[in-house]
Specification:
The chain is 0% helix and 50% strand. By secondary structure, it is mostly beta strands. The strands form seven sheets. A four-stranded antiparallel β-sheet has the order 2-3-4-5, with no helix packed on it. The structure holds beta-D-galactopyranose. Beta-D-galactopyranose binds at residues 23, 92-93, 149, 198-199, 216, 218-219, 251.
Length: 312
């Protein structure tokens, strides 16, 4: 049993192996949390771990690999999970939502050709199990836009949004998804044009949307900022700092809002030279009025009484 998660260390799964799930997301489904993230080892692209308590993670499956089954869908996509020379393409920041109407888990991910970042596309895959072998549906540019760092968000009414950087990362586009979550349905906002915000992560509290992001400096961390809005389509506020000048040496991966633990920030502490040494940062998010703040803690400890405790 693991009862503590130390920030900036390689957390281990229940088999004692390092967790490879970077730039990812966690969803709650049927008494479990499912954690999806980048796994760049061997022929893997996206891994899935499962936990009942957020501390003890059981490795479940590599849900997307170079050999995943594929099937085209209605929008025009290109199915390409390997390069011509047999090498891997590059899939980053996988995000998953469960679609209640179709009973499918839908994954959106940033797609690059594995050589450079010029593809700037998103890719979609689906499965009828949270941790099964996902079927890959190919990559495309939403409405022709470039699309790099991205996140997914599902609202209380079931409508879902894909948010991704466009125009060479200068803008953050917010797309409402179609009902089955398989395609974009409408571009509803272009946020902070020219501000180069990436690594988006969204949470809604007290009817207000808070969108966290980083600046665009590759693997190097920078000052986190957020904006707020009463309507996801805007108007959005100007950008306000959160955390410190390096976001505590992390970049937003996603936000998980839980009844038992409150709202939680998950970041990646990237190691650009040794990618698989990149570690995780987990911190509580505080709200007051229309302000959000994140303080630094060394570790999270699981307690019987209060669920989770953060220690400085
Ligand atoms: C970051 C981005 C990461 C990864 C990295 C590569 O800006 O957020 O997901 O793409 O650049 O340099």
């Amino acid at each position: 049993m693991t009862d503590e998660l130390i920030n900036g260390t390689l957390w281990q799964d229940t088999a004692g192996r390092p967790i490879h799930a970077r730039g990812g997301c966690i969803i709650a489904y049927h008494h479990y949390y499912y954690w999806y993230g980048e796994d760049r080892r061997d022929n893997n692209y996206v891994s899935c771990y499962r936990s009942a308590d957020l501390f003890n993670w059981e490795f479940r499956n590599c849900i997307l690999t170079t050999d995943s089954p594929s099937a085209p869908i209605r929008q025009r996509t290109t199915i390409r999970l390997r390069r011509d020379d047999g090498g891997k393409v590059n899939l980053e920041r996988p995000k998953v939502l469960y679609n209640e109407a179709t009973g499918r888990f839908v994954l959106w991910v940033h797609y690059e050709n594995g050589v450079n970042y010029r593809e700037a596309a998103c890719a979609v895959a689906t499965c009828d199990q949270p941790d099964g072998d996902f079927v890959y549906h190919g990559h495309f540019n939403p409405y022709g836009y470039m699309s790099r760092d991205c996140t997914l968000y599902r609202d209380q009414d079931g409508s879902a949004y894909f948010i991704s950087t466009a125009r060479d990362n200068a803008d953050l586009n917010v797309y409402r998804l179609q009902e089955d979550y398989l395609n974009v349905g409408q571009l509803i906002a272009r946020l902070w044009p020219g501000e180069y915000r990436e690594a988006p992560a969204l949470i809604k509290k007290g009817g207000i949307y808070y969108l966290l992001s980083s600046y665009c400096t590759g693997w190097a961390p920078n000052q986190g900022k957020y904006g707020t809005a009463a309507d996801i389509g805007g108007p959005w506020s100007r950008l306000v700092d959160f955390a410190d000048a390096t976001t505590y040496r992390s970049q937003p991966a996603f936000i998980l809002d839980t009844a038992e633990y409150g709202p939680l920030y998950f970041g990646d502490r990237w190691d650009g030279e040794h990618y698989t040494h990149s570690s995780y940062v987990l911190l509580p998010i505080k709200f007051s009025g229309r302000q959000l703040s994140i303080d630094y803690y060394r570790k999270a400890v699981r307690t019987e009484a209060s669920g989770i405790q953060f220690i400085r």
